[in-house]
Amino acid sequence: xxxxxxxxxxxxxxSFVPLVAALCSEEAERLTRKNNLxxxxxxxPFCRLTSEVHMRDPNNQLHIIKNLKIAVNNIxxxxxxxxxIRKLLxxxxxxxxxxxxxxxxxxxxxxYDLNISDRSVTASVPWYNNWKDxxxxxxxxxxxxxxxxxxxxxxxxxxxxxxxxDHEFLNHYVACMLVVSSGEPEPVEQFLKLSQEQHRIQHSxxxxxxxxxxxxxxxxxxxxxxxxxxxxxxxDSVYEEMKQRYGTQGCYLLxxxxxxxxxxxxxxxxxxxxxxxxxxxxxxxxxxxxxPYTVISHKNADHLIPDGLDNDIQDGLSNNFKAxxxxxxxxxxxxxxxxxxxxxRTTSSLHESKKTSSGTPHGACLxxxxxxxxxxxxxxxxxxxxxxxxxxxxxxxxDQLISRKGLSRSLFSATKxxxxxxxxxEKSINELxxxxxLLYPPEAPELQIRKMADLCFLVQHYELAYSCYHTAKKDxxxxxxxxxxxxxxxxxxxxxxxxxxxxxxxxAHYMDTAIQTYRDICKNMVLAxxxxxxxxEILKSQSKYSDxxxxxxxxxxxxxxxxxxxxxxxxxLLLEQAxxxxxxxxxxxxxxxxxHMILAGHRYSKAGQKKHALRCYCQAMQVYKGKGWSxxxxxxxxxxxxxxxxxxxxxxxxxxxxxILINDSKQPAAQQGTFLREYLYVYKNVTQLSPDGPLPQxxxxxxxxxxxxxxxxxxxxxxxxxxxxxxxxSLDQEYDCESSHQWxxxxxxxxxxxxxxxxxSNFQPTQYCLNSYSDNSKFPLAVVEEPVTVEVAFRNPLxxxxxxxxxxxxxxxxxxxxxxxxxxxxxxxxxGNDMIxxxxxxxxxxxxxETKLARLKLFPHQTGELHILGVVYNLGTIQGTVMIDGxxxxxxxxxxxFVYNGMSVRGRQDLEIQxxxxxxxxxxxxxxxxxxxxxxxxxxxxxxPLLEVFxxxxxxxxxxxxxxxxxxxxxxxxxxxxxxxxxxxxxPEFFTFGGNTGVLTPLSPSASxxxxxxxxxxTDSTSVCPALMSSxxxxxxxxxxxxxxxxxxxxxxxxxxxxxxxxxxxxxxHGPDEEGVHEINFLFYYESIKKHSKMCHRVLRHxxxxxxxxxxxxxxxxxxxxxxxxxxxxxxxxxxVDVENINTxxxxxxxxxxVQVSSNSKHWKLQKAVNRFEDKDYKLASxxxxxxxxxxxxxxxxxxxxxxxxxxxxxxxxxxxASPCADFFxxxxxxxxxxxxxxxxxxxxxxxxxxxxAVRLIQKCSEVDLNIVVLWKxxxxxxxxxxxxEGQHHVVLHTVGKEAFSFPQKQGFKxxxxxxxxxxxxxxxxxxxxxxxxxxxxxxxxxxxxxxxLSNLIKTSLHYPESFNHSFHQKSLCLVPVTLLLSNCSExxxxxxxxxxxxxxxxxxxxIHGSFTWLGQTQYKLQLKSQEVYNLQLKACFVRxxVYNLGTxxxxxxxxxxxxxxxxxxxxxxxxxIIINNI
Length: 1479
Known about the structure:
eleven-stranded antiparallel sheet; 57 strands; seven-stranded mixed sheet
């Protein structure tokens, strides 16, 4: 139980005090009314004696009485009515509320700080560590527990209001004061009349109330004298007469009203009466009646709607927690409405009367001397009148009992003997029959014992009282008078507890038996409740909190009623005290405390005590909050919200309902719908109080702030027929970090080209869509008259749909031209505003537990700074969301026309986006700091051009190397002309717009449906066709010196596209060499004619997705030819081209035709095809393979232009030096050079400067800059139609003797081997590679060239007859002339040494070829000029016939200006065989 102000002994003593009746004459009552008091009220503050009192017991032993209190009441001749008692108790509890901010109202238990009043005091007690010690300290503290003054006030009023009964005498009157004024004509006669009136009331049968202790009641005569108005001499004379008549012990002269009522206003006299008068004494019962004080008015409860709730809402409220034991039922809630119940009206009138009475002073005519006189009067009455009378009565009763029982000594002295003998087993309550109706006559000895026990109890003689109670208990049980027995058991237990020195333990089983008897047999809940209140307080004082709680809870059943009334108020108070018992236990039971506080709050609510109900729920919430008990939290918050709303605490109600909605509720859909409607109703009432105030923040739906995206620009146009709009960027696309980085690099690339290789310092990458991954540290740029779209991610956490209406953005705008003091104004909507237009979504439905994106637009019409603050909308629900047959009709609801249920509120939610955490400096790393996120703060810039790009006949699938012609349409949809149109891509080899010399016609797609993508010329069909020559410069194709091939200028007429104008340009596409799906990014760059400070350019993005299929696989090798004829300097090579059809017919390709092979080089050209075909062209079906051989010679001109040589296999020449063939050649060449350059840079580093010029010259001898282009046609059957596809493959030949491919080599194996072979290869275990560790800074190219490079310095060729006839019979030696041709392949002078003395030592060579010798000079030293060819005449000598290899010579070469460097032999790769025949 909660802490009480009094100790348990003081509480019990004050609960049972001697009652004294007061009977006043009218004149005496008038004198006291001058002070706004009745006589009983006048003496009430002075009824406690300040000194000890002595009396003697029947054994003449002195007995000391401490702190005695008496009660003086006016005589009321009818018993209290149940309605009046209930009204009083309700009022007492209602007006007593917790004091705010008291430390004593905080309980600390475990890890909980429980605020019992309105303010919490922080106290931290660990739950597991030292909690026992801490609780012991708290127990020793005066601030250990919380006080509940409303319970103490209820308990006091309840005990005082108990009607007197015949089975006990504790609340019977012991004496009667007869009060007469000295101002009456005949005071003595008035005393006689009052005495007769008292005698008539006590002994007449017409008055059953009040009850009197004994027939011979003490009468005490009081003469009341008004000092300020009466005659003191007359009063003294009358008093003297009274003393002679009644004796000095039976009368008293009380002088009051020492001063008039018109005393000075500045005088301050204490008012001790106010605290007693507020309790509204039960003795004045005349004004109370049964009817109007019903707490719950059932007769009109069905028609009440609290505070104007609609019927629909009321239905929703009354259906909550139907089967829940904590349900707030409809009837109990309506009792708290502000109209329709008598109880509320009487309560308000009571409060008004209290205000009036509290403002009226009491005791206005009394001085402090008068206070002392009244106090002295009470002491004199008690000392001289009351206690002697009680002592005498006890003696008489004792003597009567002794004489009747024939005992030789007093009952007191025989007590020990009576109870020392053997005990007779008592019968249990269940064995006793119901004899609660048994009545004893007043003279019965059993009642005399009880009467004597009660008198002893009232004067604190608890030992004698216990003896008497125990004796009476046995007699009553023997007679089976259960009501009397229960009363005796109750008081015997209390007397045993109050005995000084505690000679015996507290018999709690006595109390349990008494409670059970009162409740089950006697059906008297009033007496049972008194037992519970007394016993619980006693158990609590003994720290038996568990027993006390069980006792309190036992009396709180819903079915128990008393005096024909409900028990809600009593149950609420007892449950609350039980909860305090749980929290005050040695090991606090916090959850039990909270649960019983919930039960108490529920019963308080049913009893109409809304404030106490709210307090109980708030205290319980402190325990349940944040512990995962979501359903309990929901119930508590819902009840707190309703109670707060009933008490007009609207802010608290809104807060409570808000907590229900923002937590992840586990309630069913119907319950959540009820919560939401209730919240909307309460919120509507709050907003109506201040309609012109700021918009409130709404809790629903949730907004994921970080997921907010901002898009600048118009929405993407859909495709129209063959026209496909540029993909650009939209809110429908997912963010890709890698892709975003690529777009940024492309933009930087084109900006650097435009600005002559330098990126401006104020360059800001264009970002059309801002999200949580983009760089939002800078203010984004938006263009005037172009929409700004904000995508807000809403999430509905509830299982019921939410309907948002009139949804729009909340913004603030500051025009650029305005001065700083004009900060702009916050606008809810942009209607009627010429600066910003706002789009309003009329209805936006979010289904249950759905995440839905809303895209809201703003249309800026003026330059300046825009700040998007949040969203504003009406929050509501739709009708018909109740579950029907288990199906939720809200599922699948689409936006459209919805029916309101009449409940929606206008509010806002702010968009507050947290920027990225800073982690750069040491300070930022050691603290938590976040950078800015400015995606919602765009700067509106001046008008800019806007480009739209459409692709016509753009393919989605190509063969590898296929050439396809499409068209691109550029449209300027703005009001500004655009210029400097460029496109940049990481794959420039994929497309071309044609070179400067290219033919741009036909421009329309329809005119070129059946035309070839190439520029062609008809040729003569001859058997051997030499290569056709042409030349072109890379400058004509945008690949001049220093230019970046990725940035391509788009040829616009006059370089300007006017507003509204459009132009179509041809675009050739080249299928990538690798099969698969390719994403190719185009970035279109353009500028405005007028230069702007904020935005210099704009870009448009397009991503083309191309799926390529296998076509041809081309490999090529170049080697030097030994034939030196036909050329003045004898420099030619053989080119072998290996072509394989690796297409598996998945694209419907029947066969490929090789129609032309072209070469492009600055130094070499194809001269002719060595192996011609019988047919005009070369056909390859699926999986077929062929090899072509061409002769290549050195070009005569060595300028910067490329020489194109076309070897045609058909009758139509494709001009390879024109667009698009040359375009794709130059682009692939540039990509190849870029790739090889990047690879060489890995190995070069700083060592690049250390290359020796000589090394470079030697290496250059083995390099060949010859590029082969294989042009083909493919015949495809598609939809029973035959189509002809064209394409080309490029092979770049760098080195003599090294094979080159038309595709990256890693993928080449897969294409060469085919699918099945490749799969077998993949299954092999991977080859183990030895890891090599090296230091990059020490890595450099070797300074000596490789043997392969040195062997290419000099090309040698032997000229001799293939067979030679000689007659060995005539001449034994055969001499054959041999010519050795030496060709210097380098561009420097070379010293050459020829050594003919070399002998073959290989036995295999000797077996095959015979041995011969050279005659004449066998070693030569020559110097060959650059590109020089030298003939050396030699003679070979043979001695017999056979086949001989003449290639036995060794050739050493070195550069002329070097000393001994790089000397090595020049070996011929093939043998020079000669046949010697004998004639």
